[in-house]
C-alpha cells in the first residue's frame, strides 16, 4: 500500500513526529512523508504518533492508496531530498 | 479526478500561491490543498502556479488519483478548516 502523510504539528513536537515518520516512510517535502508500507506497520506507526500529538493543535492526514498504479505524482519546482536531513 | 497538492514555498510567495490554489481546490491543512478537479482546470492552475515559483527554492507536489474511491483519507488530531482563512 502507498501512503502520503502530511502533518501540521506544533514546533515543540515536530522533531519527534518527523523522527517517528522517518522510521517508516520517506521524507519528501517539508510537511510530507510518503512510501510503501503494510497496513500492520502503518497501524503501529500511527499508534505511536497518536501518543505524541496534542489533538486540539496538531493534525496528521493519512492518504492511503491500495495500488500505487492508481496515484501519479508530478512536481513543480525543486525535488528536495529531505530524507538526508538530520532530525 | 481527485488531487492532493502539497507545497513548500518561500514566505514572499506563499500567499500568492495559496490564493491561486484556493481558486481551484480546498485548503485542508497548512501545506495541503485537495479536491476534485478536471485535467484541463488542473493544467491551467499549474501553469499559473509555475509562473509564480522560484524553481530552485520552491516545490509543489501534485498527487493525482483518477478515481476518488482509490484513495482513503484518515485524520489524526484536529480537522482544521483552513479554507475559511483569509489569504
TrEMBL record, chains A, B:
List the CDD domains.
Cas2_I_II_III
Q: Which Gene3D superfamilies match?
A: 3.30.70.240
Specify the superkingdom.
Bacteria
UniProt-recorded Gene Ontology molecular function terms: hydrolase activity; metal ion binding; RNA endonuclease activity
**Keywords for the protein's UniProt record, in alphabetical order:** Antiviral defense, Endonuclease, Hydrolase, Magnesium, Metal-binding, Nuclease
Statement: the UniProt record of this protein carries the keyword Nuclease = yes
EC supergroup of this enzyme: hydrolase
Q: Which residues bind Mg(2+)?
A: 8
For this chain's UniProt record, which GO biological process terms are given? defense response to virus; maintenance of CRISPR repeat elements
InterPro entries named among the record's database cross-references: CRISPR_associated_Cas2, Virulence_VapD/CRISPR_Cas2
Coiled-coil boundaries: none
Q: What is its EC number?
A: 3.1.-.-
The Swiss-Prot or TrEMBL record lists the needed cofactor(s) as:
Mg(2+)
Give the function comment from the record.
Answer: CRISPR (clustered regularly interspaced short palindromic repeat), is an adaptive immune system that provides protection against mobile genetic elements (viruses, transposable elements and conjugative plasmids). CRISPR clusters contain sequences complementary to antecedent mobile elements and target invading nucleic acids. CRISPR clusters are transcribed and processed into CRISPR RNA (crRNA). Functions as a ssRNA-specific endoribonuclease. Involved in the integration of spacer DNA into the CRISPR cassette.
Q: Which family does it belong to?
A: Belongs to the CRISPR-associated endoribonuclease Cas2 protein family.
Instruction: Give the multimer and partner information.
Output: Homodimer, forms a heterotetramer with a Cas1 homodimer.
Q: What is this protein called?
A: CRISPR-associated endoribonuclease Cas2
Amino acid at each position: 500500500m502507498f501512503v502520503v502523510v502530511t502533518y501540521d504539528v506544533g514546533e515543540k513536537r515536530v522533531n519527534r513526529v518527523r523522527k517517528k515518520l522517518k522510521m517508516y516512510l520517506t521524507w519528501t517535502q517539508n510537511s510530507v512523508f510518503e512510501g510503501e508500507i503494510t497496513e500492520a506497520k502503518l497501524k503501529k506507526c500511527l499508534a505511536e504518533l497518536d501518543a505524541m500529538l496534542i489533538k486540539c493543535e496538531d493534525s496528521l492526514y493519512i492518504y492511503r492508496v491500495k495500488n500505487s498504479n492508481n496515484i501519479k505524482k508530478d512536481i513543480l519546482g525543486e525535488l528536495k531530498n529531505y530524507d538526508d536531513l538530520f532530525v
